[in-house]
Every structure is written in structure tokens, then in C-alpha cells.
Design brief:
The protein has 139 residues and is of the alpha+beta class. It contains 5 helices and 6 strands, in the order βαββααβαββα. The N and C termini lie far apart (53 Å).
Length: 139
């Protein structure tokens, strides 16, 4: 994940916004002149993103962005920086939609289709079956 740091921003706030996207998981941070990078191979770092995509009903938009950005085993989601700072995952379709610039979440894996499904398709809920017993004791 990477986010640029403009001269008018506090680096710590940009870093906090990026950390809020990952939540509680294992990652490393790297700070360069005008860039903050977070890296992880811990799948748990995607759990918060997945949960918020499902809870906020933006799965279809996120999936569209992942499909459009896919190049081989890489995909990118652009996230609104201000929303991330307050702990909300908000997908944007272009850098212009996030006034201070987006946070770019770059995903690399061999099975991009499976990752997209995991992130954007809700968990299958078991259908609730109602069993009506007839005279003969079977449904």
C-alpha cells in the first residue's frame, strides 16, 4: 500500500490513514521523501477491507476496479485517504476523487480471480429451511 505525502500534510496522519486500512495485522512500514509504504504478506491485512466492502454494499464497485486494474497477477484498489483516516474503506475510481490523493492498495497473487471473489462476494449463508412434517412424519 502506498500514499504520497504532500508538503501541506503531516506524515503521521498519512501513515495513520494507511494503517487504518490494514487494521490489526502484521506489516512493515517504509517512509520515503514523499511516500509512505506499508507491505505485508499477511492475508489478515485484507480482512478489514473485505468486511467493510461487504458491510457498506460497495462490493460491485470494488470488483469493477479490481478487474479494470488487473495486470497479470497484480491488481490495485484506490482508496479515499480522508475516509481511511477515520477508519472507513471508501473505493475511488480515480485519483481526482480523493482531494489529497488516494491510498493505492496494490495486491499481488497468483490466483487473482479467487482473491477478487474472496474480497467482493459475500460469504454464503446457509439457507434457512423450514421443515413441515406431514401426517407421515416426513417433509
Amino acid at each position: 500500500m502506498e500514499a504520497s505525502v504532500s508538503p501541506t500534510e503531516e506524515r503521521q496522519k498519512v501513515l495513520q490513514a494507511a494503517k487504518n486500512v490494514f487494521g490489526e495485522c502484521s506489516y512493515t512500514t517504509e517512509e520515503r521523501d514523499e511516500l509512505v509504504l506499508l507491505r505485508s504478506s499477511d492475508a489478515a491485512c485484507l480482512t478489514k477491507i473485505r468486511d467493510q466492502l461487504r458491510d457498506r454494499h460497495v462490493r460491485a464497485a470494488a470488483r469493477r476496479m479490481l478487474v479494470l486494474s488487473r495486470e497479470g497477477g497484480r491488481m490495485t484498489l484506490l482508496l479515499n485517504r480522508q475516509a481511511a483516516y477515520v477508519g472507513v474503506i471508501s473505493v475511488v475510481s480515480s485519483a481526482e476523487e480523493s482531494p489529497l490523493g488516494p491510498i493505492a492498495l496494490r495486491l499481488e497473487c497468483e490466483r487473482t480471480d479467487e482473491l477478487m471473489d474472496w474480497l467482493t462476494i459475500p460469504r454464503a449463508e446457509e439457507p434457512q429451511r423450514q421443515v413441515h412434517r406431514g401426517q407421515h412424519g416426513s417433509a
